[in-house]
Amino acid sequence: MIGLRKIRKQRNLNQQKVAMDLNISREALSYYENGKREPSLSLLVAMSQYFNVSIHYLITGEEFKKR
pLDDT of 17-63, one tens digit each? Predict the structure, then answer.
């Protein structure tokens, strides 16, 4: 989840703030950012809406490109 950490840092948000807003623990968010766990689809959607970016961006750190 390269893009998750990237967008959080770009917006100057700490893990605790994001975790509280998403109703998850700070530890869980850290695991997602470090690739130790994978979030559920519903949590991916919530993260995507929270940061206003695509799920693809959260996972890869890159915008989706059409061919």
Answer: 999 999 999 999 999 999 999 999 999 999 999 999 999 999 988 88
Name every residue whose Cβ is closer than 8 Å to that of residue 66 and which is 6 or more positions away in sequence: none
Cβ distance 61 to 47 under 8 Å?
no
Residue indicated by tokens 């998850």: 24
Q: CA distances (Å), 67 to each of 12, 60, 64, in order?
A: 33, 17, 10
- 18 in helix, strand or coil? helix
- The whole model's pTM is what? 0.88
